[in-house]
Structures are given as C-alpha cells and as structure tokens.
C-alpha cells in the first residue's frame, strides 16, 4: 500500500522568506505522480504543483518548486518569497493510477 | 463549466437519519472521487468511479455508505443511519486519468 508521510505538522515562515515543506512516500512502483495541494481555511483544495516520477527535472510553478528525490522517495515543496496568502494547510499526495493518497498535512503560517 | 460543485455545503442531521450528498464534476472528467476529511487530517479515500462504474471502494466505506454515478455524470453519496463518527467534510473531486484532481468545496456533515 502506498503511504504518504508529512513529518512537519506545523511550519512558520516570515513574509518574503523561503520555506520548505517535507514529504516522503512509500511505493514499489516506478511510474506514478506526486502532487502538492493547498487548502486555505474553510476553502477548497487547490492544486499547487504536479510531478511525474519518470521526469528527472523538478517541477516549478512561479514561486513554488519541488525537490524530487526518487531514490529517496522524497518530494519536498519550496515556497520562495512567501506571501500572507500562502498561509494554509499543504497536503502532499501520491497517485499511481487510481485513487490519490494524501499525507496528514502541514499547516503553514506566514508572519508579516 | 466552473468546476466541481457539491451540494449541500452544510448538513446537520440527527443521529440515525439518512443523508444524501450530490457532486457535479467537470463535464470532461471521466473520473469522480469521494473523500472524507476530518479536522486537522488529510483527505481519506472512500470510493471512485470511472464513468458510471464504481471501480474501488475503501474499507472506510461501511455498508451504511453507498455511492452512485448513474449516467457517468453527477454522483450521489448516501449515508444511512448516521452516527456521530460520520461527522466530517465530504469532498468530491474529478479528474482525467493521471492528472491532478479538481476538488469541490465539500459538504460538511454534522451529526447531532
């Protein structure tokens, strides 16, 4: 069974600084997809970034980038130039072919 | 098409009553998923459909839960004889295979 582990229940970052959220996963497959989702308070889940396991190049979306280490089964999210609007729960997720499995989440606080 | 729509947004019911939630996915998406999310946790997979076929069900989906997607478009999730432990946010998402999910805003169920 695939499991996703987020070891940081809470993280805090100063506005305009950089923060990295950690995620590890367990799988025996070689072809899969990894995602980071953002869930602001009382709002719906939003896809932040997506990584295909067969691609060695790390995905980047504006201020969001990932560090994908396939051998280590690690998939961290880096948020650069943090903004107040980045405050939210962040969920790492694994998808092979069918349903997506989520980690327990990291609550990110952005300090002005 | 403005995204995934879920109704109702909130539902308060007495223990033992039956409730039904509806999800309208993005029309081009052939996959539809139901998740349950409790406070401070990541979404937990319940079931998913490809078109009208229900392809996978979690062990979390007891026999009091049933989901349908009769014409491969909208889906309903019914909970019979609700229990207090059923109180949670019920999330629906849709996708094309191997793409990130688009989530609805969820239905928050409170069983009193």
Describe the structure in your own words.
The complex is a heterodimer of chains A (112) and B (112). With 112 residues, chain A is an all-beta fold. In chain A, 0% of the residues lie in helices and 53% in strands. Chain A has no helices and twelve strands. In chain A, strands 2, 5, 6, 10, 11 and 12 form a six-stranded mixed sheet that branches. In chain A, strands 3-9-8-7 form a four-stranded antiparallel sheet, with no helix packed on it. A two-stranded antiparallel ribbon of chain A has the order 1-4. Chain A is globular, with a radius of gyration of 13 Å. By secondary structure, chain B is an all-beta fold. Chain B has no helices and eleven strands. In chain B, strands 2, 4, 5, 6, 9, 10 and 11 form a seven-stranded mixed sheet that branches. In chain B, strand 5 and strand 6 form a beta hairpin. Chain B starts with a strand and ends with a strand. Chains A and B meet through strand 5, strand 6 and strand 11 of A and strand 5 and strand 10 of B.
Number of helices of chain B: 0
Work out the strand percent of chain B.
over 45%
Rg of chain A: 13 Å
What overall geometry of chain B do the principal axes of the alpha carbons give?
A: globular
The description of the largest β-sheet of chain A is: 6 strands, mixed
Query: How much beta of chain A, percentage-wise?
Result: over 45%
Structural class of chain B: mainly beta
Helix content range of the residues of chain B, please? under 10%
SSE ordering of chain A: EEEEEEEEEEEE
What structural class is derived from the secondary structure elements of chain A?
mainly beta
Number of strands of chain A: 12
Uncertain segments of chain A are none
In oligomeric terms, what are we looking at?
heterodimer
Secondary-structure blueprint:
The complex is a heterodimer of chains A (about 110) and B (about 110).
Chain A: E1 3-5, E2 10-14, E3 19-21, E4 24-26, E5 33-39, E6 46-52, E7 60-61, E8 64-69, E9 74-79, E10 88-95, E11 100-102, E12 106-111
Parallel strand pairs in A: 2-12
Antiparallel strand pairs in A: 1-4, 3-9, 5-6, 5-10, 7-8, 8-9, 10-11, 10-12
Chain B: E1 5-7, E2 10-13, E3 19-24, E4 31-37, E5 44-50, E6 53-57, E7 65-68, E8 75-79, E9 88-95, E10 102-103, E11 107-111
């Amino acid at each position: 069974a695939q499991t996703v582990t987020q070891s940081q229940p809470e993280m805090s970052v100063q506005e305009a600084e950089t923060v990295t959220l950690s995620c590890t996963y367990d799988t025996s497959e070689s072809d899969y997809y990894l995602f980071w989702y953002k869930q602001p308070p009382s709002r719906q889940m939003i896809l932040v970034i997506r990584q295909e396991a067969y691609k060695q190049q790390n995905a980047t979306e504006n201020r969001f980038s990932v560090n994908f280490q396939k051998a280590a089964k690690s998939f961290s999210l880096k948020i650069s130039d943090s903004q107040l609007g980045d405050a939210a729960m962040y969920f790492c997720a694994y998808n092979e072919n069918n349903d997506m499995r989520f980690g327990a989440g990291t609550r990110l606080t952005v300090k002005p | 098409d403005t995204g995934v729509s879920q109704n109702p947004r909130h539902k308060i019911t007495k223990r033992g009553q039956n409730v039904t939630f509806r999800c309208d996915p993005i029309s081009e998406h052939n996959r539809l998923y139901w998740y349950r999310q409790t406070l401070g946790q990541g979404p937990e997979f319940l079931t998913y459909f490809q078109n009208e076929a229900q392809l996978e069900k979690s062990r979390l989906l007891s026999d009091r839960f049933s989901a349908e997607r009769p014409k491969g478009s909208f889906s309903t999730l019914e909970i019979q004889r609700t229990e207090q432990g059923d109180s949670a946010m019920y999330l629906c998402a849709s996708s094309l295979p191997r793409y990130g999910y688009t989530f609805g805003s969820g239905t928050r169920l409170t069983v009193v």
